[in-house]
Amino acid sequence: MPEDAPPNGGALLEVAPVGPRQRVSEMQAKLHRWAAADRGRRFDDLFNLVHDPATLIAAFDRVAGNRGAGTAGVDGLTAADVEEALGVPGFLNDLRGRLKTGAFRPLPVREKRIPKPGGSGKVRRLGIPTVADRVVQAALKLVLEPIFEADFKPVSYGFRPKRRAQDAIAEIHFYGTCGYRWVLDADIAACFDEIDHVALMDRVRKRVKDKRVLALVKAFLKAGLMSEFGEVQETLTGTPQGGILSPLLANIALSVLDEHLHRAWESGGELSNSSRRWRRRAKGLPSWRLVRYADDFVVMVDGTRQDTEALREEVAQVLAPMGLRLSPAKTQVVHLSEGFDFLGFRIQWRRKRGTDKWYVYTFIAERPLRALKAKIRSMTHRTSQQDLAVVLFNLNRATQGWARYFRHAVAKHVFRKVDHLVWWRLVRLLCTRNRWNWRDVRRRLTTPTGRWLSITAGRSELRKISAIPVTRYRYRGSKIPNPWVPETA
């Protein structure tokens, strides 16, 4: 980070060698600082930063550390194969040489269809690039992300550093509490598949002047797709899900929506302070607030249903030049008292039990709970022959991660129900496997005083998610830290 930079001037200090990660961090901090200082600046000579050895080393570390590192592209190589068979230094030197000479060409991505969560039966198409392509995409992202982050608006949270889904939920909760009770709950149909390449490249050119970088970005967009049947198809639109660069490119494309709806919130705008918003409401005019996470977004409206419907048409017109359209099946106008689902949460304005006061509550939606229960049942089939320690490890990994995501919702009762389901599924598995009856269960899983014991196997122990504290996630607003700006005391 910038605080690790060597001393300025002619200080007579022995400067320690700068590692690749620190060099990349300093480079990113400078790019971000320059981009933020001059909103109209177009950056040239970025290509040298992309193929810089430090950038490529940092990029390979990211690729090798990703969950998909063990998945091969069309060439059949994984990150582990590169490390073991080719060696990382030789692989990166060859890749750098091809980039410098212009010989590098991205290969088609390998199509992989995975079921969408929730048991709807629909599938999501992923495009898996080769390891070399992933490294170059990661290097491009390291260089381009700090530049475009200077332009991105605070209302978008998906695939951005230091931002998370809980921030988007907290913002919805905050504005719902402030009277924004009508909601445009929107979804963009096949967003990653339908982004118009020409419109996207035009937005990239607003900040990037280097023709070699632009050509590289375009080459990845046009790389093609190899289907599961081995057929290579052209990619005329879209940026494939699964590519490291794709989320950044999607945010660049969708920033057209952020800029349009957030313009009124900028300094001097008609929604820029509370008094101006109050005067608009006094005149019967609406106020609105966009909250976007990747291609899912909501527009909170302090107004009427008609105001919200008008915003829906306006949003559709803004997205059309990017080749995007709203999904008719998933886009709806609802009142907050009806509730709506967003990022796995159920958000609803309702009366507090036993009082006449109304509050905005955040619950766990039905779909992620149903998906977790299905996963638990698949792991604990009573005829399963899998080692109990492995079953406990997999259960803990699935339930603990799920609970930590939802621990800021009204979740305590749901957590206890999940623990109850897991315990009974394991007990039935053990009864079938060991031919126990209920007396055997009591004898083996309770103390002499009758207190129930945790289910264990070797060093593995079933961990209850109800032990995870449920806390309020505080709305951070404009206080979300920027990774390239040192925090002031």
From TrEMBL:
Key words, A-Z: Nucleotidyltransferase, RNA-directed DNA polymerase, Transferase
Keyword Transferase: yes
Gene Ontology molecular function terms on file: RNA-directed DNA polymerase activity
Positions of the Reverse transcriptase domain: 95-347
Signal peptide boundaries: none
NCBIfam families: group_II_RT_mat
Protein name: Group II intron reverse transcriptase/maturase
Annotated organism of origin: Streptomyces tateyamensis
Lineage of the organism: Bacteria, Bacillati, Actinomycetota, Actinomycetes, Kitasatosporales
Gene coding for it: ltrA
